[in-house]
Design brief:
The protein is of the alpha+beta class. The protein has helices at 2-10, 32-42, 57-72, 87-92, 118-128; strands spanning 18-21, 27-30, 46-52, 76-82, 100-105, 108-114. The protein starts with a helix and ends with a helix. Keywords: Disulfide bond, Electron transport, Redox-active center, Transport.
């Protein structure tokens, strides 16, 4: 899986569709180089990637709860990837349904699950933080 992550991060196709949290609840797009930098700079910090689709009902349902959680857990980095914009990235992480959450630390995928279950997100964050 580690080599898959490196291939994804080196992909020139990843130019949009990834979002990061800015100081408000609005999400701002990030680009390939910024994603690489964020994953590298995260170091010991946990990174949670939310693979979502704009048309996905459960994704829309859990989004405000994720926003709240990301405000509470300032020591965890939350990123969002639009699977329709970045199909190759979704394939590399073997994302078949949305939302899918991938938990990364020190560049390694620690956990992954699908479903709009905020309690499971919280428990998985606590497990790997």
């Amino acid at each position: 899986m580690q080599s898959a992550i490196k291939r994804v991060l080196n992909s020139k196709k990843m130019l949009n569709g990834i979002f990061r949290r800015k100081h408000s609840l609005l999400l701002q797009p990030i680009f390939l180089e910024e994603l690489k930098t964020k994953l590298t700079e995260a170091g010991e910090k946990l990174v949670v990637i939310d693979f979502f689709a704009t048309w996905c009902g459960p994704c829309k349902m859990i989004a405000p709860k994720l926003d709240e959680l990301s405000q509470e857990l300032t020591d965890v980095i939350f990123l969002k990837v639009d699977v329709d914009e970045l199909e190759g990235v979704a394939e590399e992480y073997d994302v078949n349904s949305m939302p899918t959450f991938v938990f990364i630390k020190n560049g390694n995928v620690l956990d992954k699950f699908s479903g709009a279950n905020i309690e499971k997100v919280k428990l998985t964050v606590q497990k790997h933080k």
